[in-house]
Specification:
about 350 residues; alpha+beta; Phosphorylase Kinase, domain 1; Aminoglycoside 3'-phosphotransferase, Chain: A, domain 2; 2 domains; six-stranded mixed β-sheet; three-stranded antiparallel β-sheet; about 15% strand; Aminoglycoside_PTrfase
Length: about 350
């Protein structure tokens, strides 16, 4: 149940916790609340009543199953986890200091991979579904990808007919055929997923965090990670959450296919993906949506980049695309043709 308050937001919300702020700081999207009873993080969101109810269900479930790698959400003095003020929803957490240096050698990506696997393992369930539902999911994604491919082909045709190509356009055309090859690889893995799922006639769902990234994880001084922001949590295939996490890893720092394979092996040490789930995970990763979004932004001129900045950004996406291709081939080695 959500509490409705009719006073000024921060003070009215904190009153529900019997907290009286001494100082309030804005840190990212949260308020850091200093009180005589400690330091807290107050998050303001736009969750609907239905979304807030699901969020509370997720938090309570994680507490019930003993998943300890999360920043806890604190109940009000009335036992509620979410306080509503008008169209806004608020929830309170203890303030966790996020460390970037640790007492022991720690790689945050390794920790996150293992802890996400533990979350998935604790919430795993097997569900049956009809072949019609499977084919509908397959068809929707194929249709979306085909539309994106067509948009990029139209853009390529448009700029090929110009007398002068900008550096960004030239870079895009240079790597466009490779991106189409990645689209085909994504479709191949998606088809492999569907064929494998049809044979099983069931699928695994887990509680997906929905936004597994470094900015949604706090680390203590010992290198233990604590997830927060479960507002987009959903029951879905583990492939979805793992793909989202890997996309974040791939954009956050330099990496190679060996490191990518190491992260996947760490995840699978705690929660092994089925073969069809691996294909679905790879299809999500391989489709070059990130590169195409960069082209979208350039065409719409929504972001105020200089031409050099736009080219640099695109080249980074191309580099990531090529690394993902090598990563794909390390996860699914191609058989050498026989002489």
């Amino acid at each position: 149940m959500n509490i409705h308050v009719q006073q000024k937001p921060i003070g009215a919300v904190l009153f529900q916790y019997d907290l009286y702020p001494e100082t309030i700081e804005t840190v990212g999207k949260v308020k850091k609340i200093h009180t005589g009873n400690g330091i807290f993080a107050l998050k303001e969101t736009k969750m609907s009543a239905e979304e807030a109810d699901w969020f509370v269900h997720v938090i309570r479930r994680l507490e019930r199953i003993g998943f300890h790698y999360l920043v806890p959400v604190l109940p009000t003095k009335y036992g509620d986890y979410v306080v509503r003020y008008g169209e806004q929803a608020y929830y309170l957490m203890p303030w966790y200091t996020d460390h970037t240096e640790f007492r022991y050698p720690v790689q945050p990506e390794e920790v996150m991979a293992e802890e996400l696997a533990k979350l998935h393992g604790l919430t795993e369930r097997t569900q049956e579904y009809s072949e019609e539902v499977l084919e509908e999911s397959y068809g929707v994604l194929k249709k979306r990808w085909a539309h994106r491919r067509l948009e990029m082909e139209r853009y390529a045709d448009q700029i090929e007919g110009t007398v002068y190509l900008s550096p960004f356009q030239l870079t895009f055309l240079t790597h466009f055929q490779r991106s189409l090859h990645m689209v085909e690889e994504a479709e191949r893995h998606l088809t492999s997923w569907m064929e494998g799922a049809k044979q099983k006639k069931n699928f695994r769902s887990v509680l997906c965090h929905g936004r597994p990234s470094r900015k949604h994880t706090c680390f203590d001084q010992y290198g233990t990670g604590y997830f927060f922001n479960f507002e987009k949590a959903v029951l879905d295939t583990p492939a979805r959450d793992v793909a989202l996490m890997f996309r974040h890893f791939f954009q956050s720092r330099p990496w190679d296919e060996h490191e990518g394979l190491h992260w996947l092996q760490l995840y699978e040490k705690h929660f092994a993906l089925f073969d069809e789930e691996r294909h679905l995970f790879m299809s999500y990763l391989v489709f070059p949506e990130s590169l195409y979004l960069t082209v979208d932004n350039y065409m719409k001129k929504e972001k105020q980049y200089t031409e050099l900045e736009a080219v640099t950004h695109l080249e980074r996406k191309v580099l990531t695309m090529n690394r993902i291709y090598r990563f794909m081939n390390s996860v699914f080695p191609r058989e050498e043709p026989r002489a």
